[in-house]
Amino acid sequence: MASASLEGTAVALVAPGRGILAADESHATIGRRFDALGIANSAENRRRYRQLLFTTKGIGDFISGVILFDETIRQTADDGRSFTEVLASAGVIAGIKVDRGSKPLAGAPGEQVTEGLDELRERLAEYKTLGARFAKWRAVITLGEDGRTPTRRGLEANAHALARYAALCQEAGIVPIVEPEVLMDGSHSIERCFDVTEATLYTVFQALREQGVSLEGVLLKPSMVLPGTTAPRRAAVADVAQATVRCLLRTVPAAVPGIVFLSGGQADELATAHLDAMNRLPGPRPWPLSFSYARALQASPLKAWGGDPARVADAQRAFYHRARCNSAARSGAYTPELERSAA
Ligand code: 13P
Prior knowledge:
Blueprint: H1 4-13, E1 19-22, H2 27-35, H3 43-54, E2 63-68, H4 70-73, H5 83-89, E3 93-97, E4 102-104, E5 112-114, H6 120-129, E6 134-141, H7 152-171, E7 175-182, H8 190-210, E8 219-220, H9 237-251, E9 259-261, H10 268-280, E10 289-293, H11 295-305, H12 312-329, H13 336-340
Parallel strand pairs: 1-2, 1-10, 2-3, 3-6, 6-7, 7-8, 9-10
Antiparallel strand pairs: 4-5
Helix pairs in contact: 7-8, 8-9, 9-10, 10-11, 10-12, 11-12
The protein binds 1,3-dihydroxyacetonephosphate.
């Protein structure tokens, strides 16, 4: 059984109308986003950018938690408060990315495994003292063009690492977000994405059980079931919603308190529309379907800011708008009028 506090945190993170902001980009990842807009990738620019997001007025109405990066959880706002204090005062729970990225899996060409289990117990203890109540670990599953990957070995290696991480988090009193991302890259069909996502989730939940992880104290962060980015046959929003929910119903136990999707490189409005369409499907469903987006919440505010202190208010408006639209999508209440209301 998960402790009451683990379960309580997990349930709070998927409270109605609210979802998670992933702001845990590594220096390299945020560097790529900054580069595209000509913003220097300095610690101070990263601090100013994250401050802009976290101090957006009213954000606690739509955002339940924020996933931070190691540097960010140690940074402070202009007024001297730590970012975790800033978030807490807005009613937002702080989380922390604890994986150390993916590396090629030995003996498995084209497949990757996520690293970061070394000293994880000690790192979690420190993050807890810094205010983190939940954590994230992302596994990356790549669909090979030849149809041969992922292999069972690749799926099991990633599921095992996710489960070891989740068990350590729960031991530390931190809710693990379990994130197996089936990448959109490639020309695969939506049907193949369905099969691979089903096999991935099945393997992940088996590993969680084997490692003694309490399902009431985790959140699942999956990718949606989509055709690959270069697939000749695109999928309608309703088809993505149906395939994704069907896949989850087959694989995710009802004991899991919530599912928070990643956006995975989908265009902002499409990520919102897909979540909305899933929440419009006839139920019942055992778990709330919410969001834990990075790119789909941040692309527009980052562009609006562009590193310019004079454009902070514009960027905050853009962020507020995307958070509001995704909040509406949680109950199938996202409309074209709401999307246009920002203008
Ligand atoms: P995206 O929403 O940009 O996929 O990021 C979510 C995330 O946390 C990736 O690990």
